[in-house]
Description:
The protein is built from five helices and seven strands. By secondary structure, the chain is of the alpha+beta class. The protein has one domain: 3-Layer(aba) Sandwich (Aminopeptidase). The protein has a seven-stranded mixed β-sheet with strand order 1-2-3-4-5-7-6, sandwiched between helices. Coenzyme A binds at residues 49, 55, 111-113, 118-124, 144, 147, 151, 153-154, 157, 160.
Amino acid sequence: MSCPAMKRRRVQNKMAKKNKSKPKPRPAYVIRPARLEDFEEIYDIFCKVLTEGKTYSYTLAEMTPERSLAYWMSAPGTYCMVADIDGKVAGVSAVRPHRTGRAHHVANASFIVHPDYRKMGIAKDMGRTALKYAKKQGYLAMQFNFVVSANKVAVDLWQSLGFKIVGTLPKGFDHATKGLVDVYIMHQFL
Ligand SMILES: CC(C)(COP(=O)(O)OP(=O)(O)OC[C@H]1O[C@@H](n2cnc3c(N)ncnc32)[C@H](O)[C@@H]1OP(=O)(O)O)[C@@H](O)C(=O)NCCC(=O)NCCS
């Protein structure tokens, strides 16, 4: 027979185990069209990623607020969406024509999730939403021109959404910690 203290400890251990395996509650987000007043937060997220130097080729110096506004929101044909958590921008995506003129039927897109809100499924959701939007707009394909091969999370994520690596640019990116690494062009028909 076990004494009450032992029984209590067993119950406490069981509860501790149960709590450990419980996933952290995820804050709810909505994906919505971006508004001009979101830009300050979008730019802040962009700057964080550019400073890191591991995924985007642009430097902070060249991506002035004006150029960044055009890149994410105001260039012709650009459609920007954000993942919104209680009014805060947790992630940003933009769909735009890959090129003008006779290549206008191919869409291009960009994605960044704020470091505090990663691994919650936001990028996957934004990716699916961008694909649906592009198809609805009449684009025939979506192409990513610059996926850094060392960015395994992104490469795996895009492959899970149906993108294929259709080209490799050897040593196309000067990674902040790994040096010269390959860059993938990823593509899928819609
Ligand atoms: C790449 C990026 C957009 C992913 O955003 P995210 O919201 O964290 O991604 P998700 O939560 O939707 O996760 C997608 C998948 O990747 C996995 N994942 C995400 N972050 C991960 C990490 N750090 N380590 C391991 N797996 C990870 C998730 O578990 C999920 O896998 P599953 O579909 O099998 O469940 C984000 O890391 C980011 O903004 N990086 C910097 C900018 C960038 O690289 N943009 C893309 C350029 S091509």
